[in-house]
Amino acid sequence: MKTKIFIDGEAGTTGLQIRERLADRSDLELFKIPDEKRKDIGARTELLNEADIAILCLPDEAARQSVSLIKNSNTRVIDASSAFRVHGDWSYGFPEMHKDQSRKIAQSKRVSNPGCYPQGPIIFLAPLIRAGLIPADMPISVNAISGYSGGGRQMIEKYEAMGDTAPVYSPYGLDFNHKHLPEMTLYCGLNVEPVFQPAVGNYAQGMMSVIPLNLGQLANVPKGKDIHQAIGEHLAQIAGGYVELMEFEAGQKLGDLNPEALNNTNRMQLYVFANDDRAQALLVAVYDNLGKGASGAAVQNLDLMIGL
Fold first, then answer.
1. CA 94/CA 170 separation, integer angstroms
2. Which of 15, 152, 201, 296 could form a disulfide linkage to 266, CB 3.0–4.6 angstroms apart?
3. 200 has which bridge partners?
């Protein structure tokens, strides 16, 4: 029997990509709501309650409304908004962040798809804190750049309309109150919120997050190879993950890091750079903001929930 899927909000960037990724699946039955009924609560309620799994690609308040419309105990939910990402009754949909996370997602009725920006910091910092290499109260900065598709349809239209006049690099979130901070702080295992500085680049999709570490302030200063080894040991515990740790060489110089390198995939590549004499390190994650950062992650979570 096919698993019945309803994408609530499929007209948006994330929803369109999820439907495209699922279009050729013979094991799924994809419900489609007529365009004229996308905002019809009665039509949405019917499909939400008929689906085995509902994937919500909506703003936060609309996502909360959709969850409230589900009146049965059978429909499971994957929510791509930030409405439930730090909610205790929801599983966080980042399978590679902990050795038990895939199992939690597979068994969960409610899964909150992760935000794109937090995944890079989480996959680096959570294992390092658990390994005792950096403390949970260490001051952390996260610098990240994403393609303009991360801002949804309005930003896509804005950037494409500007053409050659679009800014090459445009920082934002300069009130230091970004909506991703709560999940970043919680799932990294930090006691203090990091300084988070996101930016938009003049390209459609793909992203890179960069975490500089000043290690000399620590009582026990880890070497670059220690950091790399701890990340590797963590990933070795993850079955079927899409995160790859790249080879480490002390003092290496790499000039071809490209935020677009993994576009249209669900993969993530991790790099550790370090200068042990200076007691400094740089952690770099490359992935697709629409793939591993959104639609690809949702499909990965869906597959876990249906036993694939």
1. 28
2. 296
3. 146, 170
